[in-house]
Give the backbone structure.
Amino acid sequence: MGKKPALELRDEIEERAGADAVFDYEPLPGIADEMVDNKGTIRPVWQRFLTHLNIMPEKDLAERFARADRYLRDAGVFYRAYGAKGSGERAWPLSHIPVLIDEREWQALSAGLVQRANLLEAMVADIYGDNKLVEEGIVPPALIAANPEFQRPLVGVKPATGHYLHFCAFEIGRGPDGNWWVLADRTQAPSGAGFALENRVATTRAFSDIYAETPVHRLASFFGAFRDALQTMKHSGDDRIAVLTPGPANETYYEHAYIARYLGFMLLEGEDLTVVNGRIMVRTVAGLKPIGVLWRRLDSAYADPLELNQNSHIGTPGLVESLRAETVTIVNALGTGVLETRALLAFMPAVCRQLLGEDLRLPSIATWWCGQKDERDHVAANIEKMVIGPAYSRAPFFDDSGESVLGSSLRATAKNSIADWLTSDGAKLVGQEVVTLSTTPAWVNGKLTPRPMSLRVFAARTVNGWQIMPGGFARIGSGDDVAAIAMQSGGAAADVWIVSDKPVERHTLLPAEGSFTRNMPGSLPSRAADNLFWLGRYIERAEGALRILRAWHARYAEAADPNQPLLADVTEYLAAVDIDTAEPVPESLLRNIESAVYSASNIRDRFSPDGWLALNDLAKTARRFHSTITAGDDASHAMTILLRKLAGFAGLVHENMYRFTGWRFLSLGRYIERGLHMTRLLGHMSGPEAPDGALDMLLEIGDSVMTHRRRYNVNTARLTVTDLLALDPLNPRSILFQMNEIHREVEQLPNAFMNGQMSPFYREAMRLHSGLAVMTPETMNGDVYHRLERELEHLSDLLAQTYLG
């Protein structure tokens, strides 16, 4: 399709779509636009998309956007936002209209980014190697020596693969002249690649028909090539590849878990690792296992508290030692964050000529380091066109949390003293030319509206050299202000389509048809096992509390007297386990559910999105009930709803979770907690001192009323209730059933047998199981229950000592 002026295209679309066409787009004067060129002409790459868009009824468009939002919500995509009131998870803010870029333009842009990635590799090799750039006066010494990102212990430490950089990102923007500029380099621990994937999935949910017939380059080949490259970096066949995350409190933790799951890598935190004889090892339930490649997502300084930042609580002591021994490859190498320094942008052209012998193909945003007199004078003389910010900042000017000062916003008195400020603090400051970024269409209040945009583009080192992701994601401003692009400032994110004029390959990470190897799941890290075990315990603890509270409130609704003997007795029991019946939904119940959510959040890479959504729905409903329901029928009904939601979560986990080691720890947590729950209840409510109605209430709490009627041709009695709830191996609520299941799972755990002998944990599980199996209802009494409670708690402690330490 040839170029058409905007008004002519609009007339053509309106003829097809009628008077209700939604096309009404006016680019901002004097600002480059991604959809309309500087002559007011619709770029050819946009014409097909616009034609489709403008024949859609507004209702259809709204439904499409809703589908995309629903996908992100159902997938649990979030980022962590920080504010005056602390941090919190926020839904991923999708801008539904993708950014479209022609393949030919992208190829030229990619060539410039490949050159830049090679330049950054050469720079960091020099900084931690021969230091010729400083020695020959190309880069001022202060920008390296005084840089907080320069890690002196890494000087002279060469990476095992010979490369410092393996995965980079670049913030780029189009200036008023239509040319692209690099706004910032990302080499520390670049984030966003996983979000780019989620943007793509969500956007294609909205525009599946358009996407299917548009030759848009896919993203899977980029990730597949990088995954294959990481596989070649392993030092032996036993080595693992892992993503190293700071943990759930990090703003992009969702992405860390998503990438690990997508590529099939382990997701680890610093505490999961230890260094033994110069090798990085991961603590697993089967013992220490070697790590060959770590894709780190935490800043260098925090990686090793022994040699880098001693205040770090998220690193691994000895990590630098393993780098010196060349036994591990870290992506990217520690210390590469120095390349993100804003002031270094001023020296990129000279560094490129020095190291690569060629001119920089893709220019950086115009930058002047104010530690030099001529540059200082230039910034002061052109303050109206400048933004001044910290020299060592790693953020672009629009994403530095207000650290930069716009020269045009200064009062006259401040402008008069700017030269003095630059003279006194110049070494700590840079001036950058104010850039008016190009705009792209965003859907705002029912119409296409131009919004400022920057792109984050990713580069991965593969076996064939650097490969640029055919896309990335765009950060879209919430208004006309460029400073509003940042996600923390309310900006949005859009997918980026690289559109060809011919069919494109449809890559996938799935194996090709033919022979295959069934690989067993990787070793389970001890921390993950710990979280799975406690997830099981917290869920079962919540269920037990819900069942007791439902029974209590059902009887309270009939008697309306909490001092009635049975209710008073159960109230006393519940108080001993920190449950207050004065609260229809007790705070302790909420804490157990929230603890389950927290445990699940620590293993997002091992948790299905459906399970995560079900668990969060349970937590939200419980919080709502906490402040809205009253005692009696209302509370009893609320407990039933919560039990159903909890059963839905348990069912999803039971049906979907792979039956391997992780499943066993989750199950063991549930069996031990359910056994404890029933042991305590029977010990309190089945004795001779128990009030009238206690046995019936026990059967109700144990969900065994109908079973008791079928199995025993007598009314409820202590012996029949004890037989059913304590010793019946077929009743999934009985204590013996839990011991049978514990025994079955324990014998499948790693190291259950050591040197031909049972482990202490396995031996104790066997002893408990056999001891209970030979009991009869007549021999079960309060002392037996109290002893059994202590022994189950001891069994939990032994499990922790054996596998979770």
Observations:
- Residues 585 and 625 are 7 Å apart (CA to CA).
- The two ends are 65 Å apart (CA to CA).
- Residues 526-559 form the longest helix (34 residues).
- Confidence is low (pLDDT under 50) at residues 1-7, 12-22.
